[in-house]
Amino acid sequence: MPEQAQVNIFMELLALLGTFALGLAVGLLVPPVQRFFARLWGSPRSLARGARQAGGRLRDSFRWPSSDQAAEMGGMRGAIAQAVANTLTFRVRRAKTLFLEGQVAYQAGRLADAYGKLTGALGWDGQRELLDDHVTAYHTLAAISETWGDLDGAVRYLEWACELQPDDVDAHTRLGALYSCLGDQGRAIFQLQGALGLDPARLETRYQLYAVYRRSGMAREATEQLRLIKAGEDPAALAAFFAAHGQAHFESHELDDAADDYTLALQLAPDTALWYALLGDVYHVADMARQGLETWLRGLWVTPAPVLEERVLTAAEDPALEPLVVETYRGAMGRWPDRGAYPLGLARLALRQGDEEAAAAYLARAAAVDPGLVEAHELLANLYQSAGLWSQVAESLRAGLTAARAGDVLYRCRTCGLVSAQGQPRCFRCGRWHDFEAVTRGALAAEVSRAESPPPDLRERATLLWGRFVRQLAGPTEDAM
To answer: What's the rounded Cα separation, in Å, for the pair 188 and 170?
Structure first.
């Protein structure tokens, strides 16, 4: 038994020693094994990351520096880098130059030159690196095509602009207006409603939608759009907005739209004489002479101005319209007693009917209230000469010459020579737009004295007035006696 107990004790000691040795071995070996397996598991990621870094460094070694980086380099390396950078960016730089030159040419009115440069710029920048310049070029090319009457081309350019910038409200609005001009009112309404979705407060878009509804006969929808246009807008600014569209439609000979625009403008600002004049011009171009005269006379009754008085005097040459002019001028002479245009107009009508006594009374009143009316002095001098009243003749001629030589600013049409006392965008005689130039009355008289064949109106009258004045200073001739 004692020997067996000793053997058992010895075996227990060996078991304890083995357990200790096994624990020590596990404690020493497990961490390295864990680290080994962890590295083995992450090695593909490390290898991939290392490969990407190596590839990036390789690409950087073959990539040429930018123009700014090349400019900072010195020596031969910098010169070579600058040359290579210039070569690589030549296409974009050429496109940018053509974009700028095309816009400058367009602003200067050289449409063909602008069209060629802008289309060339689009070709150089085929990858559309200059995206904003592309959109601007499409807008300009659309405007040029519209000016040339190529509405299909304008639509094509605006569609490309909308593709590049879907939130371009102006492109969508213009595109809708062009669809309407081409007769596709459905696509026009769809395009304009989409533009309103991008910017519900944009006045131009609502106006174009109103115009499309009106052309389509959708009166209720047009009225609703017009109500939304007027809501919250300043009346004076809105009137100018309508008048600007009226002039644009008038210039493009869209007479119905022009008349509607000017009527809306006058509803908001009924004291603007120029808009009455242009609305009357619209009716005259549309062969509605009486309605045009009524518009001018209505404007004279509200706000007299030379731009209206000159037109009425021209219209009074039509015998069918003469009674209406006489009736209105008699009332206006009492309503506006300080304006000489009304008695002058009545004097011309009296002379046409052979009533020299009434004409003399009207002319004397016109010359008294408005000494600058050269024609009144001239006609009055003719009447005094017929009656043999030479002192009055000399007095009228002196007053007429004083008026002809005055420094008042007048406006002359470069095309037909019409002289007006008020600036205006359109000549009602020849129909030319934006052709008036400012000139003093004295400068006109000086031009007449140097001209061999003076043009009509004020300059011709001034020449005749001067000749009669010189002759009458010497007294009546035998023929006159």
So the answer is: 14
